[in-house]
């Protein structure tokens, strides 16, 4: 079997510079479909456009954040497709997951994922209620994190984005401890995929839950980003850009500290302000 597709793709481009054409080679972030299959019952449960790399983490993180699996032992095997009737290159875009035989997953919750894009997402109060039904509750307040720690996160995330530096076209999800040390980072064309890769990596390593950690994502924070963080108990979620209204609503519902517009020494706190330690709090009417 051939190696999995590269996360970068070469392309010849034309650069317009002061009314002149210049041709050069460029690196693009690869975007290819990943089909996630269960071997029993034999079924495709999701197709998502992703950047190749950490595909097993992505598949495991997706299943965990969707509530299909709860423990590492629920997975008996993860592998790329070995079907000889499928083109060898495309086999690397199919991940097969074998769950333990006694597991009887409810796959109806995955119907919306039959085909998704890298920017997919869901919204609605019914989804918030479904998290309560699944047993998730408000994340307790444990300790304060100094604002200086939050200030330091964007630069650390940026410095660790290896593929982004050469392509300029990838999102990232990074995991930090509450002292601001970068523990792990995953990249993808989609924020949700990057976060699933990050969650899946910790899940397969047996490190969940993430009750004493900070997650930072590039771009904005959406409902689905917060939903995934709730499933693994992340208390603080940071983003470079703005959150959506539903992201704020669900963060407040589950007591997540949600931070947006984190740039330089300035950021907005949309919920959970109690976890952030600052020198002085000034209230304006």
UniProtKB/TrEMBL annotation:
Signal sequence extent: none
One Gene Ontology term, aspect cellular component: cytoplasm
Coiled-coil regions listed: none
Keywords: Cytoplasm, Molybdenum cofactor biosynthesis, Transferase
GO terms assigned for molecular function: sulfur carrier activity; sulfurtransferase activity
Superkingdom of source: Bacteria
Similarity-based family: Belongs to the FdhD family.
Descriptive protein name: Sulfur carrier protein FdhD
